[in-house]
Specification:
The protein has helices at residues 2-18, 39-52, 68-77, 93-98, 107-116, 119-124, 157-167, 182-187, 212-226, 252-259, 293-306, 309-319, 326-329, 332-335, 338-347, 358-372, 381-396, and strands at residues 29-34, 60-65, 85-89, 126-127, 130-131, 134-135, 140-141, 143-147, 170-172, 192-196, 202-207, 230-231, 242-247, 263-266, 270-271, 274-275, 279-281, 283-287, 351-352. With 401 residues, the protein is an alpha/beta fold. It folds into two domains: 2-139 and 281-347, 3-Layer(aba) Sandwich (D-Maltodextrin-Binding Protein, domain 2), CATH 3.40.190.10; 143-277 and 357-396, 3-Layer(aba) Sandwich (D-Maltodextrin-Binding Protein, domain 2). A five-stranded mixed sheet has the order 2-1-3-18-6. It has a five-stranded mixed sheet with strand order 12-9-13-8-14, with helices on both faces. A three-stranded mixed sheet has the order 7-17-19. Strand 1, helix 2 and strand 2 form a beta-alpha-beta unit. Helix 1 runs antiparallel to helix 5 (107-116) and helix 9 (212-226) crosses helix 17 (381-396). It is globular and about 70 Å long.
């Protein structure tokens, strides 16, 4: 199996870099922004790339710590002064495209990316049929960590609630967060997305929360909040007496420490018969437009390399980031990681997070706070539908054009 995987990756690397064989080379400077945790790793990979490609051996590469949460804003503020290659989260793609801050992925490379990475990550780097970045991870989302000595069956939310109540343990789920809250609404079949124009302005909304499915989702949230085991939260380190918690891969080490030998992780359960869904997220590498054709080729080649399956697997081994590359995801090491395996299962039911106005997050917090306060505990379906109609109308009011 390992030999087959190695062969697949070797072929993938040759395909990924084939289009750069005719490059004339470049001996100038390239700036890269990546998360602080991956700076040292990235520097080592840059040196490996230069060693493998003599035409780029003399170029200078400066790797600086600018995380995915800040990179897009910094790039948009001053594209000219920004890094040539930078990591960012998928919800920033539309803004970066509108700011003319991303170079299209070369067609031959786009074909390789589409063939070698999971569908969610490919969709996340594509806008209007054009690929604008290289997928680097498929590891941002949430799932269920639980204590095996407490939870007997993690497949249904009703059973998880009952087991936590029986054991006197807490069940954490941050339902007043616009990110986690979508687990109920998207899972029940609802939609809430915004469309943007070429300038990044929000021009329309697609929302059907005010529906039978929306009422079903809201009732599931209400039933959860009624439980004596329920705690609003999503951080293992901030919790106590945890029987189960909806959280992400970034808390895997804390969850393992909290649960010890009883540590387990799975996709989200069903609630009232429907599979909980939610947002999925991806990290990607973008290349800003270049006026120097040789520098452009060098940046594109280096970005493709840093996002390749071989490097994704090495990045997982170094800092535990989950690959989007299909061959890397199938490796024994990645498959043995319980948190990443749970997330991979959950991402099949997740929606890539697009661009949302800031007001949406406050609106969702308000809805969750009302549920937590018990405001709708005795409400009938008609009342809940009215609540969701108001939510939907308010969300639509954030459309700017």
């Amino acid at each position: 199996m390992k030999k087959i995987l190695a062969l697949i990756m070797a072929v993938a690397m040759m395909l990924s870099l084939a289009s750069f064989a005719a490059a004339e080379g470049y001996d100038g400077e390239i700036k890269i922004w990546v998360a602080e945790a991956t700076v040292e790793f990235t520097q080592a990979q840059v040196e490996a790339f230069k060693a493998a490609h003599p035409e780029y051996a003399n170029m200078t590469v400066d790797v600086a710590p600018v995380g995915e949460g800040d990179a897009a804003n910094n790039v948009i503020t001053d594209v000219e002064a920004a890094a040539d290659i930078f990591g960012f989260a998928q919800d920033q793609l539309a803004r970066l495209v509108a700011a003319n801050a991303l170079m299209d992925v070369e067609p031959a490379n786009a074909e390789v990316v589409a063939a070698e990475n999971d569908a969610g990550s490919v969709a996340a780097v594509t806008l209007g049929g054009t690929m604008y970045a290289y997928p680097m991870t498929s590891d941002n989302g949430y799932f269920l960590y639980y204590d095996k000595s407490v939870v007997t069956d993690p497949s249904t939310l009703e059973q998880v609630i009952a087991d936590c109540e029986a054991a006197g343990k807490n069940l954490y789920f941050e339902i007043n967060s616009g990110w986690y809250q979508t687990a109920f609404f998207f899972g029940a079949g609802c939609t809430l997305t915004y469309d943007t124009d070429d300038q990044g302005a929000i021009v329309s909304i697609n929302c059907d929360y005010a529906s039978d499915n929306g009422v079903k989702a809201l009732k599931a949230m209400i039933n959860l909040a009624k439980s004596s085991a329920f705690k609003n939260g999503s951080s293992v380190s901030a919790g106590s007496d945890i029987g189960a918690i909806v959280d992400g891969t970034w808390d895997a080490a804390s969850a393992q420490q909290a649960f010890g030998d009883n540590y387990a992780a799975v996709k989200l359960p069903t609630a009232d018969g429907f599979q909980l869904g939610g947002f999925g997220g991806f990290k990607m590498l973008g290349v800003k437009p270049q006026t120097d054709e040789n520098k452009m080729a060098a940046c594109d080649a280096l970005a493709a390399y840093l996002a390749s399956g071989e490097v994704q697997l090495a990045r997982f081994e170094a800092v535990q980031w989950g690959p989007s590359n299909l061959a890397a995801k199938s490796s024994e090491a990645v498959q043995a990681n319980a948190a990443l395996a749970a997330l991979a299962d959950q991402l099949a039911f997740a929606v890539p997070q697009g661009q949302y106005p800031g007001e949406y997050w406050s609106l969702a917090t308000g809805l969750g706070d009302d549920v937590i306060a018990g405001k709708y505990n005795d409400a009938d379906d008609a009342t809940l539908l009215a609540v969701l109609q108001n939510f939907q109308d308010t969300a639509a009011s954030y459309v700017t054009k």
